[in-house]
């Protein structure tokens, strides 16, 4: 398990990039907005305590137990991967510009074409709307595809997203899992 980053570690993590967890032909490629400073400091996706990605992933039925962020590479064995719209770490997602999200959408589309996941799951409806110009998108399956890959939008699992409790978030993950298994 990773050590808790110090305030200096967090400050130094601004702009840092963490590698994707990705491979060809995944069942689901999850796409976050960008790494927070805690993730950038530790090198692990969704690492900040209070982020609900890992518990929602497990409760939604994707993993047999709740993984820790430092176990992220084990997701590949379950056909799951993680990437981000914007690579650079920041304190808050609202620090990103519209252009960064639009450019990130183009990079994400290229990754989807290259790696061919069966589903793309975007974590954050606002980021999806901006990146792909889909102003009326809602959580759930989207009518648009990227190549042959269908897109599903999930709520942002950040602890700052008070609109979704962990139970509601897990239910959204479970709905995606059911679609993947169909």
UniProtKB/TrEMBL annotation:
Pfam families: UDG (PF03167). The keyword Transport does not apply. It comes from the Bacteria. Residues 19-177 form the Uracil-DNA glycosylase-like domain. Keywords: DNA damage, DNA repair, Hydrolase. InterPro entries: MUG/TDG (IPR015637), Uracil-DNA_glycosylase-like (IPR005122), Uracil-DNA_glycosylase-like_sf (IPR036895). GO terms for molecular function: pyrimidine-specific mismatch base pair DNA N-glycosylase activity; uracil DNA N-glycosylase activity. One of its GO terms (biological process) is base-excision repair, AP site formation. This is Mismatch-specific DNA-glycosylase. It comes from Planosporangium flavigriseum. The lineage of its organism: Bacteria, Bacillati, Actinomycetota, Actinomycetes, Micromonosporales.
């Amino acid at each position: 398990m990773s050590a808790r980053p110090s305030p200096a570690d967090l400050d130094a993590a601004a702009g840092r990039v963490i590698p994707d967890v990705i491979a060809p032909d995944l069942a689901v490629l999850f796409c976050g907005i960008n790494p927070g400073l805690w993730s950038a400091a530790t090198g692990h996706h969704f690492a900040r305590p209070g982020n609900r990605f890992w518990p929602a992933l497990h409760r939604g039925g994707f993993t047999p137990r709740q993984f820790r962020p430092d176990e992220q590479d084990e997701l590949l064995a379950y056909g799951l991967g993680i990437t981000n719209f914007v690579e650079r770490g920041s304190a808050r997602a609202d620090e990103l510009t519209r252009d960064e999200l639009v450019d990130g959408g183009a990079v994400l589309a290229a990754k989807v074409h290259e790696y061919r996941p069966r589903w793309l799951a975007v974590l954050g409806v606002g980021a999806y709307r901006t990146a792909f110009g889909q102003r009326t998108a809602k959580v759930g399956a989207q009518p648009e595809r990227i190549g042959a890959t269908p897109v599903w939008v999930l709520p942002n699992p950040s602890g700052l997203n008070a609109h979704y409790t962990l139970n509601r978030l897990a239910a959204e993950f479970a709905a995606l899992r059911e679609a993947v298994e169909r």
